[in-house]
Amino acid sequence: MSANDRDWHPDTTLVHGGTTRSPFGETSEAIFLTQGFVYGTAEAAEARFNGDDPGFVYSRYANPTVAMFENRMAALEGAEAGIATASGMAAVNLALMACCKAGDHVVAAKALFGSCRYIVETLLPRFGVETTLVDGTDLDAWRAAIRPGTTACFLESPTNPTLEIIDIAAVADLAHAVGAKLVVDNVFATPIWQSPLALGADVVIYSATKHIDGQGRCLGGIVLGEKDWIDDEVMPFVKHTGPSMSPFNAWVLLKGLETLSLRVERQTTSAARLADLLAESDAVSRVIYPGRDDHPQADLARRQMRAGSTMIAFEMKGGKEAAFRFSNALKIVKMSNNLGDARSLVTHPATTTHQSVAEEARAELGIGAGLLRFSVGLEHPDDLAVDLAAALAASRG
Known about the structure:
Elements: H1 10-16, H2 42-50, H3 64-77, E1 81-85, H4 88-97, E2 105-109, H5 114-126, E3 130-134, H6 139-145, E4 150-156, H7 168-176, E5 181-185, H8 190-193, E6 203-207, E7 221-225, H9 227-241, H10 247-258, H11 260-279, E8 284-288, H12 298-304, E9 311-316, H13 319-329, E10 334-335, E11 345-347, H14 359-365, E12 371-375, H15 381-395
Parallel strand pairs: 2-3, 2-4, 4-5, 5-6, 10-11
Antiparallel strand pairs: 1-7, 6-7, 8-9, 9-12, 11-12
Helix pairs in contact: 1-3, 1-10, 3-10, 4-5, 11-15, 13-15
């Protein structure tokens, strides 16, 4: 990556960052659909495998198209390096596994996507890692849980699905005091609206399936951080366990990055308007949107994020029945557990994304029977407003 990549505005980086070209000089990035690479001599193969020659060895380890995606994301995020993975959950698992071993301790915010909670609550303890879940918005809870022997802290901000905002800089300071790394899932904020590394985080992860693709086409994830940590801790895990990204998916995601800022900015503008519309409805008991003054952490959201994001959470007064009537009445907005798509999507977390989370834990997190998660798409906001208004009317039964 050239030094100039670091000096560009994000929009330029999203189009050009990390690009390499074959001798054909193609305009669009090439897709290198190959498992392996050939060597001119046995001596060249030996040099490649022992690291004297920095070229590619096997696409499970690294691939030219995947490397372009990794380098572009690193330039955008301000990271030294990145490793792409087959899915967002592969990135979460990879980042946490690379931070700990048997006997270590991990502290995580309670408000996590269901599969993330499974890794923290079930998978890590199975391999001898002690874990503690805390209220992510309570710095005293982090302070009480973090101790010598804590090697990683993990959080989402905004959280899935209730859009809590966690003070990344403050948690980073607490983690660093005991030598732990802070791992931040930045999916809901996107790299357009939040920069966790600049706030003190050590590792940033994305499900590239979401806004980065943004058009419902493929799976992908990425782990971003310091080069030495990526090389020494993350790369061996990838090399020997194989959670690698497909070159074709990397190419699709490179195309998605070219329009990321345009899409996210439009979606966020629409989300702010639609959050206000929902807040005015007598069928809705609460609206949670980081761009609104009534958000519980509005001041922190303004300090930490550059805008309110594409996501809205809201609670229907009539509980599950009203939430289902609302969802079933939508015409433009589709029901799906994905998010960050060009299409507006709604899901009922208690029966989908967080269905595996115990009912008591859901209640503690504020995931009630009437809660809906709304990912705002690229449709015209006037059409979405009409669709929501009709569904709100239908929700009353």
